[in-house]
Amino acid sequence: KKRILSGVQPTGDLHIGNWLGAINNWVTLQEQYETFLCVVDLHAITASYNPKELSKNTFSTAALYVACGIDPNICSIFVQSQISAHSELCWILNCMTPINWMERMIQFKEKSIQQGNNVSIGLFDYPILMAADILLYDADFVPVGEDQKQHLELARDIAQQRINARFSKDKNILKIPQPIIMKNGSKIMSLIDGSKKMSKSDPNEGSRINLLDPPEIITKKIKRAKSDSSIGIEFNNPERPESKNLMMIYSILSGKEISQCENEFLETGWGTFKKLITEQLIESLEPIQKKYKLLMNDPYQLSKILNEGKEKAEDLANQTLKRVKSKLGFFEME
Ligand code: TYM
Fold it and tell me: Where is this motif: 'KMSKS' region (predicted)?
């Protein structure tokens, strides 16, 4: 079986962008691939965070993976900071990666503007830690949202040009991973501005629907979501990004093709459409929220899942790290 690896940061509530862009695709892919999913808590400290919340958020993010339909019997779910090989490979890759490759990273530029005077080296290094996450598991594929494409290219370049090309004679040391970015859902936009992506770091809560939002909050957020003065909900009109975004969300959740939605909503007004998408969101999120509550009420079960995941992941990660260190010339005990 080919292998996939992916992860989400445990920074507060996950939103439907994380779900439709990433987690939902893991659910589809898990039967076909050997699946490793981590909660990337070391990435979560690259922005200011609350130490009282980190561990709680890590646990609840793992619970959400399962609540969204990840089957712990066939996937390994684990916490990044529990496996020290991630930090260790990251250091080695740091020393192999030219700074000017890093200076091109779009997400770093965007986030460092948001963080003003508080930008850490960790934020700059974030994509290299991500490369370590992926390369440690010899992942064939990495299912992520559109915004991670550049980071995936970096991971490929580091593996290929900076490790394999320089240090392997015959067999490659590191496997070159490929992104899986779905056509639909890989870029869900903000509810209040259809030109910006939905993001956890947007200070306006109304810009996103969180997976754990109760029905009344969903209703309120959709009611306030940006609309326009045209009649009919369209998909392909570049002047109506909000219309496109909501139709995309509705299409994925309802399982109806975009073309079918286009026909159906040709003459539908915003008020009617907003009611429909609100109902759809509530209906789609209800089973996730129910399962999440059950899991959180039984922390023992989830801990067991994370322990088993850790064991399997750690084994694999340590093997890769050992291989890398040996090829790069580190001292080895007899
Ligand atoms: P994070 O937590 O920011 O995002 C997690 C996943 O959600 C996707 N995503 C979106 N998809 C569609 N529309 C959106 N508006 C949207 N917002 C976020 C992201 O593309 C991502 O797939 N750096 C990663 C975490 C990471 C990782 C890894 C992923 C660390 N190591 C190794 C894969 C493999 C990130 O963006 O997390």
Answer: 197-201
**Catalytic annotation on 197?**
yes
- Pick the catalytic residue: 200, 312, 325, 327? 200
Q: What is the pLDDT of residue 71?
A: 98
Instruction: Establish whether residue 135 lines the binding site of ligand 1, counting it when its CB lies within 6 angstroms of any ligand atom.
Output: no
Q: What does the pLDDT look like over 186-202, one tens digit per residue?
A: 999 999 999 999 999 89
Q: Catalytic site residue 290?
A: no
What pLDDT, on the 0 to 100 scale, is given for residue 5? 98
CA dihedral 314, 318, 319, 322 (to 10 degrees): 180
Residue found under tokens 């009420």: 297
Bridge partners (DSSP) of residue 77 are 37
Integer Cα distance of 268 and 233 in angstroms: 6
- Report the C-alpha dihedral over residues 38, 41, 46, 51, rounded to 10 degrees: 170
Q: Ligand 1 centre from 186 Cα, in Å?
A: 10
Residue 63: phi and psi, rounded to 5, are: -60, -40
What is the pTM assigned to this prediction? 0.97
Structure tokens at 28: 């589809």
User: Residue for token digits 């996950």?
Assistant: 14
Judge whether 75 and 35 are in contact, CB under 8 Å: yes
pLDDT, tens digit, 9 for 90 and up, residues 237-251: 999 999 999 999 999
All domains of the chain in start order, with CATH: 3-181+299-327 (3.40.50.620), 205-294 (1.10.240.10)
Q: Dihedral sign for Cα 85, 91, 95, 101, please.
A: positive
Q: Which residues sit opposite 4 in a β-bridge?
A: 35, 141
300's CB contacts (< 8 A; 6+ apart) are none
Cα 64 from Cα 55, distance rounded (Å): 14
Positive/negative CA dihedral, 254, 29, 196, 42: positive
294-324 tens-digit pLDDT: 999 999 999 999 999 999 999 999 999 999 9
